[in-house]
């Protein structure tokens, strides 16, 4: 036993609780023997993820030595991910990833959840003792701080950091980083920023630049944050947290397409990060980039197979994206998308079979998939199979109701769809995000390709109107309305242009008749719709203009 393993209270390895996770018994026994020769006593051995997580749930563990590859099922990254998510490891606990694999994909994925160290096989006693002793010395020196953080007593943790800094200069980097994080946690951005600037003035450290970007974002200095994070990624392209923060900053600046591109690049660098794929999928969906959304949702679903973050919403979102891609596309590619959607939804039903409401959502989307492939009878039959669950509109939650209305539109039941959406708007008038989805569907109850076409016509119409070319504006808005005849803003835009033409020297009564027809299209517009007041105002103005 070396001097590095001794403390004033005896052996640094003793009295700690160890957990060794490896699917090969010989390796588990070998690791136990090495730890015992270093002075460790309380050592638990398990072969797979389930007993490892269960052990951590009921026992305090100081040191986890976990192999990355554990055969079928969860791997070491999944275990670390779940332990962090469930908060089954104290901040003072050490997690060491043990692996014979050194691929970039593995390292990048595991690093997302911040193991305390990597040990590369083969491992000998001297290597283990030296590496672990260093970590344990730091653990013991900083134990009071970590305990205060575990109790979420951040003011005490800040005080302890400040007291420890002059006494433990060898741990200055850890203390400065932790102190800045704590100031950020309590909302003291000025002190956090001061620490990051102090560190960066001495040395350009990635964690300090990242922390500075986070503080700038939190304090509303988005342009400065984005600029700083771009510099960080330029110097350290493998620093994955910077990509996530940069995407957040770009979104806050109203640049969602650029934010999506940043996350796409990040997903290439680190392809095993489920949460990033999920964020990319959501962002791509919002950007109407359904192809990218489908790819990202597919990755999210695949990575979720053994992950604590597995969620039926991922399967449902993938099914919805594939439904959008296959709708009206009767080519071989469209058929493949439709088949994949049906398979993923069926897989979801089996995987989460105890969730009855999920089956209803699944059947609604399946019906829409069939309708999009002109299999109307199959679509109707699928929807009929859950008719009893959809009878009581007051019992349907908002998201299910929107999905149901979308399918009704696809089946040509427009009146029923509009009635349902109107009812949903009344029920959920205090939920802005849900109301926005209801409005969007009322305005554009068509596939995403048609939506993009209509939006392009609308943009060109607005530009023409603003430049004073009223005839061009009428042509563009009219083209858009051929695609989405009930679109609220488009109808009102056309009414506004035609009224202007009429009042500026084109007293053609047909213009007012067209205005009347456009407003009639919106007769059932819910009062909760954002354009309702405009609709009423233009209607009243039209009455005053009628001969």
Please bin the fraction of helical residues: 55-70%
What strand order characterises the main sheet?
A: 4-3-5-6-7
Mean pLDDT: 92
Runs with pLDDT <50, length 5+? none
Would you identify the CATH architecture of the domain at 3-141? Answer: 3-Layer(aba) Sandwich
Output the number of helix runs: 27
CATH homology-level superfamily of the domain at 3-141: Response regulator
Number of DSSP strands? Answer: 7
The separation of the N and C termini measures: 103 Å
Q: Based on Cα principal axes, name the global outline.
A: elongated
CATH topology call of the domain at 3-141: Rossmann fold
CATH class of the domain at 3-141: Alpha Beta
Radius of gyration: 30 Å
Strand count, sense and closure of the main sheet?
5 strands, parallel
Structural class: mainly alpha
Instruction: Indicate the proportion of strand residues.
Output: 5-15%
Question: Could you walk me through the main structural features you see in this protein, from its secondary elements to its overall organization?
Answer:
With 547 residues, this protein is mainly alpha-helical. Among the domains are: 3-141, Response regulator (Rossmann fold); 450-545, Tetratricopeptide repeat domain (Serine Threonine Protein Phosphatase 5, Tetratricopeptide repeat, Alpha Horseshoe), CATH 1.25.40. It is built from 27 helices and seven strands. The strands form two sheets. A five-stranded parallel β-sheet has the order 4-3-5-6-7, sandwiched between helices. The chain has a two-stranded antiparallel ribbon with strand order 1-2. The protein is elongated and about 100 Å long. The model has no long low-confidence stretch (mean pLDDT 92).
């Amino acid at each position: 036993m070396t001097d590095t393993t001794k403390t004033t209270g005896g052996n640094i390895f003793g009295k700690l609780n160890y957990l060794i996770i490896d699917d090969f018994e010989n390796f588990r026994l070998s690791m136990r023997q090495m730890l015992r020769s270093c002075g460790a006593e309380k050592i638990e051995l398990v072969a797979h993820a389930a007993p490892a997580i269960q052990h951590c749930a009921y026992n305090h563990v100081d040191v986890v030595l976990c192999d990355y590859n554990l055969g079928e099922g969860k791997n070491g990254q999944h275990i670390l991910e779940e332990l962090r998510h469930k908060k089954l490891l104290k901040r003072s606990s050490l997690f060491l990833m043990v692996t014979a694999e050194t691929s970039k994909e593995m390292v990048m994925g595991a690093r997302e959840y911040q193991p305390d160290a990597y040990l590369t096989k083969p491992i000998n006693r001297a290597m283990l003792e030296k590496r672990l002793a260093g970590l344990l010395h730091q653990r013991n020196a900083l134990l009071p701080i970590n305990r205060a953080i575990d109790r979420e007593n951040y003011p005490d943790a800040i005080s302890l950091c400040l007291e420890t800094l002059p006494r433990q200069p060898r741990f200055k980097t850890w203390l400065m980083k932790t102190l800045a994080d704590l100031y950020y946690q309590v909302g003291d951005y000025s002190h956090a920023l001061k620490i990051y600037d102090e560190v960066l003035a001495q040395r350009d450290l990635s964690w300090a630049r990242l922390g500075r970007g986070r503080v700038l974002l939190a304090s509303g200095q988005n342009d400065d944050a984005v600029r700083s994070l771009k510099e960080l990624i330029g110097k350290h392209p493998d620093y994955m947290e910077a990509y996530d923060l940069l995407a957040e900053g770009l979104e806050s600046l109203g640049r969602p397409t650029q934010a999506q591109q940043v996350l796409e690049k990040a997903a290439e660098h680190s392809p095993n990060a489920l949460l990033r794929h999920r964020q990319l999928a959501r962002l791509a969906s919002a950007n109407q980039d359904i192809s990218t959304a489908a790819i990202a949702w597919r990755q999210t679903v695949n990575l979720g197979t053994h992950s604590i973050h597995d969620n039926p919403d991922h399967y449902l979102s993938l099914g919805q994206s594939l439904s959008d891609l296959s709708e009206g596309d009767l080519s071989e590619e469209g058929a493949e998308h439709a088949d994949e959607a049906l398979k993923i939804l069926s897989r979801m039903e089996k995987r989460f079979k105890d969730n009855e409401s999920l089956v209803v959502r699944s059947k609604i989307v399946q019906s829409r998939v069939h309708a999009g492939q002109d299999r109307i009878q199959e679509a109707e039959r699928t929807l009929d199979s859950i008719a009893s669950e959809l009878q009581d509109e007051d019992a349907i939650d908002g998201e299910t109701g929107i999905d149901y209305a979308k399918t009704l539109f696809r089946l040509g039941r427009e009146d029923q769809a509009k009635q349902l959406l109107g009812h949903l708007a009344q029920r959920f008038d205090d939920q802005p995000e849900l109301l926005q989805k209801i409005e969007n569907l009322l305005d554009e109850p068509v596939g995403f390709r048609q939506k993009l076409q209509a939006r392009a016509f609308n943009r060109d119409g607005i530009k023409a109107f603003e430049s004073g070319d009223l005839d061009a504006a009428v042509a563009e808005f009219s083209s858009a309305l051929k695609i989405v005849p009930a679109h609220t803003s488009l109808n009102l835009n056309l009414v506004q242009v035609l009224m202007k033409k009429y009042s500026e020297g084109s007293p053609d009564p047909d213009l007012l008749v067209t205005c009347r027809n456009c407003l009639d299209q919106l007769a059932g517009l819910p009062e909760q719709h954002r354009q309702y007041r405009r609709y009423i105002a233009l209607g009243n103005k039209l009455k005053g203009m009628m001969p």
